Amino acid sequence: VVIVTGASRGIGKAIALALGKAGCKVLVNYARSSKEAEEVS
C-alpha cells in the first residue's frame, strides 16, 4: 500500500498511475483538484 500526496496532477499523478499499473494499492491524496483525483483513482 502506498500513499501519494498531490496525486491529482503532474509528477504525483504519474507516480500514482505507475504504481497502480505495477500492482500496488494506491491511496490518492489531493488538495484542490477532486475531479482530477477521481480520474486517477
From TrEMBL:
Pathway: Lipid metabolism; fatty acid biosynthesis. One of its GO terms (biological process) is fatty acid biosynthetic process. Pfam families: adh_short. It is an enzyme of class 1 (oxidoreductase). Keywords: Fatty acid biosynthesis, Fatty acid metabolism, Lipid biosynthesis, Lipid metabolism. One of its GO terms (molecular function) is 3-oxoacyl-[acyl-carrier-protein] reductase (NADPH) activity. It catalyses: a (3R)-hydroxyacyl-[ACP] + NADP(+) = a 3-oxoacyl-[ACP] + NADPH + H(+). Its EC number is 1.1.1.100. SUPFAM superfamilies: NAD(P)-binding Rossmann-fold domains. Belongs to the short-chain dehydrogenases/reductases (SDR) family. This is 3-oxoacyl-[acyl-carrier-protein] reductase.
